[in-house]
Amino acid sequence: MLARVVAVEHLGDYRLLLTFTDGLVRELDFAGILDGPVLDELNDVSFFGKVTIDLVAGTITWPSLDPDVLHGDFEPAGGPTARLVREIRIDAAD
């Protein structure tokens, strides 16, 4: 089973701390990659900071951000991706 996002924390600006079902924790910086009409509203930091989890899909709620790409399993289909700031692994909950 592919890992899914179970927690998100907005760290300020365009940085998020994501925790996945397999215990992986990734800090991602989305600065400079939120281009195009679909992502325009995310360029407002106050809106970006309202990130939440879609528990059904297992990802953050914005369209076009795939949990498998955020976890690092796959490259995005097109366009830029977030810059990995750091990555750690914690014990996954059973």
Write the layout of secondary structure elements.
Blueprint: E1 5-12, E2 15-20, E3 24-29, H1 45-48, E4 53-54, E5 59-60, H2 67-70, E6 83-89
Describe this structure as you would to a colleague.
- The chain is mainly beta.
- The chain has one domain (5-89): NE0471 N-terminal domain-like (2-Layer Sandwich).
- Helix content is 9%, strand content 33%.
- It contains two helices and six strands.
- A four-stranded antiparallel beta sheet has the order 1-2-3-6, with no helix packed on it. A two-stranded antiparallel ribbon has the order 4-5.
- A hairpin with a 2-residue loop joins strand 1 (5-12) and strand 2 (15-20).
- The longest helix is centred in the middle third of the chain and has 4 residues, at 45-48.
- It is globular, with a radius of gyration of 13 Å.
- The two termini are 13 Å apart.
